[in-house]
C-alpha cells in the first residue's frame, strides 16, 4: 500500500473501507505521529490526494471499470495498464511482520509443503476386538474428540468449568505447548521443526471443517479393517419438521465406507433426524445385497438393544433397490 511520505515507524493509520467488491478499497483519513504538526501536514496532502484519486477511479470516463490494486489502492501494474503514459506510483513503505505473524506464516507454509490431511487419521487401530461395539464406539468418539480439531472450543469449556484439564491435556496442541514454550522465536520460525508440520496439519483440518461444515475420519477400526467416515450437519429442511412451535429438528448426515473380506465394498448413508434414523446401504455385489436384506432385522434388533430405533432401511445394488 502506498503511504504518505511523512509516515514513520510507530505511526497509526486510520483506514475507512469504501467498498469490498471486487477488491477491498480503503481510504486513508487520518494519521497519528509523535509530532502533531507533522501529522496535520500529512493529512492535508496525503488524505486529500488519495480521496481525489479514489473519486477519479470511481468516475472513470466511458463507463470503464474501477481499477483497484490488490491492497485497495491503484497498483503500479494496474496503473500502467490503465494509463500507459501516467507516472508510476511511489514506492511502497517497507513493512515487517511481528513474531506472531511470522509464526502463523511459518505454520501455513509447513502445512502447504506437507501432505495436507483432509481427514482425521489415527496411527493405530481403535480396538483389537471388533465384537465389543461399546468399546469401539467410545474409541471412535475419543479419536475425534481428542484429535485437536475442536481444541479451542474445549479450552472455552474448560475455562467455564465444563471440561476437566486432564482431558484437555490429551490433545495434540496441549502436548506441543511445552515444546513450543521452551523453544526460541528463531526455532519456532524454522519450517523444518516437526511441531510445525503437526500444527499446520491440525490447522488445515480445522479450516476444512469450518469451510466445508464436514468432518472426516479415515483409519483402522480394528487390525486389518479400514473404515472411512464422514459426518456433516444437514441444513436442508426435512418433512418431519412439522412442528413450528418446537423449532427446526436437528438433522445430521453420516456416511461410512468399508471394504470387507467376504462382503466386498459396502457403504452406508445414515440420516439422523431428531430421534429417527434412516439408512441406505449400497454394495457392488448381488450376493452381498441379498445377504444385507435378509439380515436387516438383525441390524434393527441390535440398534434397538443399544437404545436407538432404525426407522427405515434401503439396500441398493448398482442403483437398483
Characterise this structure.
The protein is of the alpha+beta class and 321 residues long. The protein contains eleven helices and eight strands. The protein has a six-stranded mixed β-sheet with strand order 3-4-5-6-7-8. The radius of gyration is 29 Å and the shape is elongated. 13% of the residues are buried.
Question: Which features does this protein show?
Answer:
alpha+beta, six-stranded mixed β-sheet, 38% helix, 321 residues, 11 helices
Computed Rg: 29 Å
Strand content: 15-25%
Overall outline = elongated
Main sheet: strands, sense, barrel: 6 strands, mixed
Helix fraction, binned, reads: 25-40%
pLDDT average, as an integer? 76
Distance between the termini: 61 Å
Q: Helix-strand pattern, N to C?
A: EEHHHHHHHHHEEEEEHHE
Q: How many strand elements?
A: 8
Classification by helices and strands: alpha+beta
Enumerate how many helices there are, as a single number: 11
Strand order of the largest sheet: 3-4-5-6-7-8
Report low-confidence residues grouped into runs of 5 or more.
Answer: 33-44, 58-76
Amino acid at each position: 500500500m502506498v503511504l504518505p511520505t511523512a509516515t514513520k515507524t510507530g505511526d497509526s493509520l486510520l483506514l475507512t473501507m469504501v467498498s469490498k467488491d471486487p477488491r477491498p478499497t480503503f481510504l486513508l483519513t487520518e494519521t497519528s505521529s509523535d509530532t502533531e504538526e507533522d501529522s496535520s501536514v500529512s493529512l492535508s496532502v496525503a488524505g486529500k490526494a488519495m480521496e481525489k484519486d479514489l473519486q477519479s477511479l470511481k468516475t472513470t470516463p466511458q463507463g470503464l471499470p474501477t481499477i483497484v490494486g490488490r491492497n485497495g489502492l491503484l497498483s503500479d501494474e494496474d496503473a500502467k495498464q490503465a494509463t500507459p503514459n501516467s507516472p508510476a506510483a511511489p514506492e511502497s513503505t517497507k513493512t515487517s511482520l511481528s513474531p506472531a505473524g511470522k509464526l502463523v506464516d511459518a505454520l501455513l507454509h509447513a502445512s502447504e509443503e506437507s501432505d495436507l490431511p483432509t481427514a482425521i487419521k489415527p496411527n493405530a487401530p481403535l480396538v483389537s476386538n471388533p465384537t465389543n461395539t461399546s468399546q469401539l464406539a467410545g474409541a471412535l468418539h475419543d479419536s475425534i474428540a481428542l484429535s485437536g480439531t475442536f481444541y479451542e472450543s474445549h479450552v472455552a469449556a474448560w475455562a467455564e468449568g465444563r471440561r476437566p484439564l486432564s482431558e484437555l491435556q490429551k490433545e495434540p496442541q496441549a502436548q506441543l505447548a511445552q515444546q513450543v514454550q521452551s523453544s526460541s522465536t528463531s526455532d519456532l520460525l524454522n519450517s523444518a521443526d516437526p511441531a510445525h508440520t503437526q500444527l499446520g496439519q491440525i490447522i488445515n483440518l480445522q479450516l476444512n471443517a469450518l469451510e466445508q461444515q464436514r468432518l472426516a475420519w479415515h483409519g483402522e477400526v480394528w487390525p486389518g479393517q479400514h473404515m472411512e467416515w464422514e459426518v456433516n450437519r444437514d441444513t436442508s429442511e426435512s418433512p418431519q419438521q412439522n412442528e413450528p412451535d418446537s423449532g427446526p429438528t436437528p438433522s445430521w448426515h453420516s456416511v461410512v465406507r468399508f471394504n470387507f473380506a467376504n462382503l466386498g465394498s459396502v457403504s452406508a448413508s445414515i440420516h439422523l433426524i431428531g430421534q429417527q434414523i434412516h439408512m441406505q446401504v449400497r454394495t457392488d455385489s448381488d450376493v452381498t445385497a441379498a445377504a444385507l436384506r435378509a439380515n436387516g432385522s438383525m441390524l434393527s434388533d441390535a440398534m434397538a438393544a443399544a437404545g436407538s430405533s432404525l426407522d427405515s432401511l434401503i439396500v441398493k445394488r448398482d442403483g437398483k433397490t
